[in-house]
Amino acid sequence: MNAIGVKDGAGEAELLDIPRPDPEAGEALVRTLRVGVDGTDQEVIAGSHGGSPEGEDYLILGHEAVGVVEDPNGTELEAGDVVVPTVRRPPNGPNRYFENDEPDMAPDGQYHERGIVGAHGFMAEYFTSPESALVSVPTALAEYGFLVEPISITEKAIEHAEASRSAFAWDPESALVLGNGSLGLLTLAMFEQRFERTYCLGRRERPDPTIDIIESLGSTYVNSNNTPVPEIPETYEAPDLIYEATGYARHPFESIEALAPNGVLAALGVPGDWTFEVDGGALHRELVLHNKAIVGSVNSNVRQFEAAVDSLASLSASFIDSLVTGIYDLDEFEGAFVNDDTTIKNAVQFSTYEKR
Amino acid sequence: MNAIGVKDGAGEAELLDIPRPDPEAGEALVRTLRVGVDGTDQEVIAGSHGGSPEGEDYLILGHEAVGVVEDPNGTELEAGDVVVPTVRRPPNGPNRYFENDEPDMAPDGQYHERGIVGAHGFMAEYFTSPESALVSVPTALAEYGFLVEPISITEKAIEHAEASRSAFAWDPESALVLGNGSLGLLTLAMFEQRFERTYCLGRRERPDPTIDIIESLGSTYVNSNNTPVPEIPETYEAPDLIYEATGYARHPFESIEALAPNGVLAALGVPGDWTFEVDGGALHRELVLHNKAIVGSVNSNVRQFEAAVDSLASLSASFIDSLVTGIYDLDEFEGAFVNDDTTIKNAVQFSTYEKR
């Protein structure tokens, strides 16, 4: 069958011909509908993140998938069910994080991530997955179900951020999303439903499609060239919640000062090493005297995927239409990996959903 | 009546003669038993923190008090009740933080702190306090009730730290206290009841009374001269919880790396400005990929004072005896403010408790 993968060191995605997988006991066979592309895929292709399964010299890409159960193979799923797979799998037998249904909390070395590190992804005509790692999706969401995985990332970050503020009466009114990529915009749409005032920071100048989306959501675009994070409190307001999705290493430090008292930063970016000066004394003092919090958050679990299905259903069709830039068939898959200023969210289409 | 205060700019505590206060409606009159001394008092005396009430040129010191109700003045308290006062008071009429019974979450400018900033403290033969800011203490704890306030600081920090880890199955086994001052040692004694393994970092060499206390608690002393924070994971283990009570501005940054995956840092110190280099990229990445959290925590509320009363009751008499270095009568109060390597925790005694 056809698959999209990257050979070690090749630096680009290519079409591969691999055997169709056979589901093992407890696994279902899934016919792939669509698989989204994100920044992590770009890093995996470039070789700066992740890696191929042990003993293999290529990695099938893709971790944002939606598909249709082709063969339930004795599981409680039914043929025709629309499902989204979670990403992490136990690396060498189960460990306590997987046993707790919290693989997202597993430390380095205690997980593989399908399509990212140690395990093949979902960019193939078919994939297999344990039933416990498949989340059912209403058929009405079959087309855009590949957005469940990125939304689940934010569900987890919100859970952890809110938990960190649960020891007192926290009544947040404003939220700032750092980053206007597809994850930032999805998060902003979710925040619009939760906060009275939202802001989204990017470095694009007008005209720009992401700025149009931000404003059509009713949010305020913050151009970081004019208003960097440290100036946001004075220019706009000090946000109760900051969601960092840039991977820009200065942002967490700048956010400590920019947050409102009792506010929380959810950090999601994964920068490389970068040494710089900070006023560590002032940051430390500000954290303490204003009861601020920082939570780092990575990956997501089944519960958060399920919450993401509900969130996806609540987003407007017009927002999703504007977010999804291109759906590419297999014969033009390269287009899905192009990342320019007109691209927000692309996906590769492996097959189409037809209601039975 | 006698009181201990500091005149603006004087740089030292002195005995003052001030009028005995009359309780207003809703307030009780309290006869002071003992008032503890901590590092904040030293900073207030030195003039580096806090300030006198508006329009006055001196501040009565003391925020760690225990006393006996002298005149209930129509409140539901009874004469003879042993009480501990909380520290924060509304500055200019109530605000939402006080209305929520969470004055500890009030930002700068929305509180006075008795004995610290904007309001006189408890180092006087009598003080008045609203009933709602007096926490009852069993008579058996009358002598050491001045430890309730510092313990409540840790109750709050633990609450916030645990809350930040409540979105997943957190099962911490080890905790590290940074700082072997009286707050660090009180916290360590509390942690001994909660964690399987505890560590306490200081910079003292043996023989030292704090090291004796640490070891008699069953904890491990970490000499920062030999094992600075970054080396703790390799030398001992990566702790699940780090409690920072040093005010050393590098500690929060070093703690991000030293924490175990999914761990949390509770930061309590209040350093001055200090600019230094950090590998901000590595810290940001570590927070995210290992789901770490930082919570800043300051002050405490009535609920946390009540929890502190229970915690104080659970600490062994031998631990408390070893922690409390000196109880100074009014005519030798200067001794309570001496801060040398033999001092752990001093208090000034204004009167003695006699059971009715």
Describe the structure.
The structure is a homodimer of 356-residue chains. By secondary structure, chain A is an alpha/beta fold. Chain A contains 10 helices and 20 strands. In chain A, strands 3, 5, 6, 10, 11, 19 and 20 form a 7-stranded mixed sheet that branches. In chain A, helix 7 (250-258) links the parallel strand 15 (241-244) and strand 16 (264-267). The interface between A and B is large, with 57 and 57 residues. Strand 17 of chain A pairs antiparallel with strand 17 of chain B, so a sheet runs across the interface.
Short account of what is shown:
Two copies of one chain form a homodimer. Chain A has 356 residues and is an alpha/beta fold. Helices cover 26% and strands 27% of the residues of chain A.
